[in-house]
Amino acid sequence: MYSVPALPMPGVLADPSAFFSSDAGESWLGQLADEFPHSRYWRDRSDSWSLQSLNALAARIIDARYEGHDVDEAMEAEFQPAELWPTWHHQVAPEIRRLLRETGMADDGETFDAIRDGWEDHAAARDESCVSDLFASYDHCELLFRFTTERWLDDSLVFSHRPWPDAAELALTPNLQFALDNLGYTVSQFRKASGNRHPADQPLRRSRRRRAPIIAHEQLAEIIDNASSTSFLFCLYAVVPIPQLIALDLTRPVTFEKCWVATLDPLNGTFFDVPANGPVIVSPNDGRFLSGGHLRWSPENICCLHTPHYHARLRN
């Protein structure tokens, strides 16, 4: 049970302005804040975060990282801090009214307001909680890494020459070449495996594989043929703990300890995935992160995914 600290001497509240401007008054208010602390964020608030709300938070975090903004401020815009008033009203005020009654000042509004103002200042200064305190390892969000460095999603798509997705019918564009490089294939290897004979839409640079293949040729054809759209992009997908995303430095390489490779149409809402054949490391030049909160339809919305199946860890 919290208790109001003892006054330094009887009668000091008879002149509240003098008392609270003194060192003794400041010390008493500090002790009061210690006895009745306020926390803007505490773990019990996180009992019922939905995937949608955590996706929205993840989008705020990613945008702040890319734009060089303070991540805590960005997160606070999504999850507002608890106000001081409820703590004062429910915990502190009844005890202060009792103290004033005992000192014969039950109706003294000036003293009551002075104590409240002083408590708020000291309680706020002592509160070291932050929005990340709300989340634990079981709070997850949908995280994607798209293999394109274009800023806008509609500039990042690959296209089929047919009214259906087909590896043999994809347009050979810089977007496709960039994605293939990151999946572990050259354009020539892709042509040979898929039977794609279309000329390049524009001159392509010399193809450069960025890694060993992270999915087999058959899996690459599978995610293309099941893309359910004639325009889409290639990405990695996992459902990851929010604390791990908060800790990431997006200017450094990031390791997905487990992930899935997918085709995603972010405009019309299609998604199809296959498991990667092991951990995947991505660098800033390989593409851009996004979360389900960046999309009108997240993968879970599109496919009604059983998200625990996609739980994975990531780190710098």
What are the main properties of this structure?
9 strands; 14% strand; alpha+beta; 3-stranded antiparallel beta sheet; 6-stranded antiparallel beta sheet; 316 residues
Give an account of the 3D structure.
This protein has 316 residues and is α+β, with helices and mostly antiparallel strands. Helices cover 37% and strands 14% of the residues. It contains eleven helices and nine strands. Strands 1, 2, 3, 5, 6 and 8 form a six-stranded antiparallel beta sheet that branches. The chain has a three-stranded antiparallel beta sheet with strand order 7-4-9. A hairpin with a 4-residue loop joins strand 5 and strand 6. Helix 2 crosses helix 6 and helix 5 crosses helix 6. The protein is rod-shaped and about 95 Å long. The two termini are 44 Å apart.
Task: Describe the structure concisely.
By secondary structure, the protein is α+β, with helices and mostly antiparallel strands. It has helices at residues 16-20, 23-35, 51-67, 71-78, 84-102, 109-126, 174-183, 187-194, 217-225, 242-247, 299-303, and strands at residues 140-146, 158-159, 231-241, 254-256, 260-265, 270-275, 280-282, 288-291, 314-315. It is rod-shaped.
